[in-house]
Amino acid sequence: MKQWNPLGIASVAALLLCSTAAQADLTAEQVWQGWVDYYTAMGQQITAGATDMQGDTLVVSDVTFASKARPEGAVSAAIAEVRLKETGDGRVEITMSNDIPVVMSGKPADGEAFEVKMAVTQSGLAMIASGTPEDTTYDFTASEIGVAMNDMAVDGKAAPMSIDVKMKTASGQSHMIRSGGVGIDSVFAAETVDVAMKGSDPEKPDSTFDLTGSFQGLKGTSKGLIAEGTDMNDLAAALNAGTNFAGDFGYGAGTYQASFSGPEGAGNMNYTGQGGTLHFSMAKEGLAYGGSAGPAQMSVTVPTLPMPLDLSVGESAFDLKMPVAKADTPQPFSLLMKMADLTLSDAIWDMFDPAKNLPRDPATLVIDASGNATLKVDIFDPANAQSEQMPGEVNDATLSELKLSAVGAELTGSGAVTLDNAAMPPKPVGAVDLKLVGGNALLDKIVAMGFLPADQAAGFRMMLGLFAVPAGEDTLTSKIEFKDDGGVYANGQRIQ
Q1: Which of 119, 154, 284, 475 has its CA at 20 to 30 Å from residue 216's CA atom?
Q2: Omega of the bond prior to 160 within 30 degrees of 0, cis?
């Protein structure tokens, strides 16, 4: 239920987001067969209650899409009618029912049974297929595309929650090529996206939340290849055979408002952001996921505090890359976390520093690390899901940047280590360089504020003296080394 699965609702919605191509005759039957071939390749079963050629129009009724039933979940969707009209110029015009019900259900081994009923809706849809059966393009526009969820049950009990997403003034194109597998290349855009969510705790009816939001300029590109002869229900095997997916998405400025209540009272939250980006990719070479966001502001009111809590951030980013396929040689991984120019309102500062002892400069955190690891298993192989064996081992790691800047002090660092995995635990060999600026001044302010007794502060300074050496005014540096003899050294002095 928690996974975003290409076999799920995205596959159904793709019908509405469908593709450029060569000028050639394309029949309605060929377009329909192309759909059957594509969704079969995606690991779904597509069936029709009836197909009837009525003049220049193929009418397909009672269409169902269903993923193979698995313990972790299954997805099914239904379209009452699809009409494929040959336009006489080698193209096919496609229309369909406005409402597409979708059901997601399952019972994970380590979770509760669930059932979620959703609906994909559209209005003003205009879709044209052109090209050839082997090289087909779908172009579409729609005044609105929506996804709504208002019926959910967990372990047989109704869960009071609803979600409603509407994309307005949408357009897109998908280019599908069937040769040695199925390849698809798509673009999509929507002028605005509106979101509404509400719900409550079934066991605590007075605990509720209600959120509405909107943002501008949704756009995205995606591409993928389903390798010939693969079963998407066996993702590990499909990836090893060459199946791959990738996408990039962007969104513009937006806002959302949320209200919530509980035993202690009610509160609310308001958010304004300037947009951002998301990206993903999945292939035998690895999995990547990340995104970035521009300036944003948030204001939160909670019942236990008399004033709103306001904060803003100048930039945030997250990026993860990791191997997923078993290999005898090391494969790269990386992790980036960044939050720049975090600013808290005076109301927050005054809660713990009314005398303004601490500098209220914007705070920044950056962690940028990478390395190589050897996987002993295929991550997506279901046979390994319950295994307690370590899936692999880290061969080396590099800290390209560490930065923590706040309250007048700044900690920076970098370094690299290799790991001897023959030892247990694995033995690192390498070094990390650290630098702290403004640490003593910060410690003095914390003592003056009464947060730390003077004798404990003195002990902390003595400990710093073991690990760091002066390098200028209120500046300390430390070189932490991990050597072949298994020892850990700080500035040349063994500490372990």
Answers
A1: 119
A2: no
Tokens of 293: 């966001």
Amino acid at 434: L
- Residue 438 falls in which region: left (phi positive, over 0), alpha (psi -120 to 50) or beta: left
State the 10-residue block means of pLDDT for the chain, 496 residues long: 37 41 73 90 90 97 86 86 96 96 85 90 95 96 95 86 96 93 95 95 84 96 93 89 96 96 90 97 97 96 87 97 95 98 93 91 97 94 75 95 97 97 91 96 91 90 87 94 92 87
Cα(6)–Cα(8) distance, rounded to whole angstroms? 5
State the angle between helix axes of 454-467 and 439-448 in degrees (0 to 180), rounded to the nearest 10.
Answer: 170
pTM for the model stands at 0.85
Which of 122, 115, 116 is closest to 12 using CA atoms? 122
Q: Where in the chain are the domains?
A: 1-177+192-202
In 10 A of CB 71, how many CB atoms?
11
